[in-house]
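Handoff note, outgoing to incoming analyst
You'll be picking up this chain. Sequence as last confirmed:
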Amino acid sequence: MRRICYDLFLMNNKKLYVYILLILTIVFYIFNFDRTISSKLSLLTISIKNIYLSNYTYLFNAISKHMSQADQISLLKNKLFNYEQYKILYLTNKNKENNANTIKMAHIISYANLNNFSKVILSSKSNINKISALITANGYSAGIVVNEGYKNIGYLNHHPKSNYAVYIGNKHVPGITHGINNNEYIMIKFIPLWQNVAIGDEVITSGMDNIFPEGIKVGKIISINKLSAIAEAFVKPYANVYNQTYFYIYSKDNNTITNN
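Most recent structure output, in case you need it:
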């Protein structure tokens, strides 16, 4: 009887040991698996953080560079406008001892007529009380500006209404500009027939019209047509007025033009 009880006790203990060993194995596996998962997740988290920090640094540097470039461009634009104004002030005042004239920038808002690119509306809050001159940023004549119906209208060189007084060549032969629609050239009319004008002569503003100052460059003579009493000449202008976005308005005396 004792033997039987002892055998039963051993069998139960063996089962208990097996259960304990099995539980320990399972617990060890679970904890080891958890460490493996934790290690993998930690590596993944570090990778994500590294990618985030790398992209954040790249974007921050790119935005900072862009802002710096934008500030630099704005500064250079202001310097350019100041330089252009100084240049035009020099060109318009070099033949004057005393000058109360004004020079202001005016942007092109739109065409006055869609079928005519040489007539434009200019940005200006102050109305012009008489005809004023249009000058490009590099100091060439571009046309005239007048007030029409509370709008400042620019008649560019190629418009038939763009009329101002000029000198031709070294002898300062007088003439009047007259634009030609849809043509790259402009015409000089009313040239005295007895005056010698040659192809290649330079044309400048004379200032005799009280619009332009004397000495603003217009272009060069490319052909001459002699009539019965006067002569006409075709000029290739220096200014390409069609690709401009703004002009400088030169006004004499108390004309005031404000930059809008």
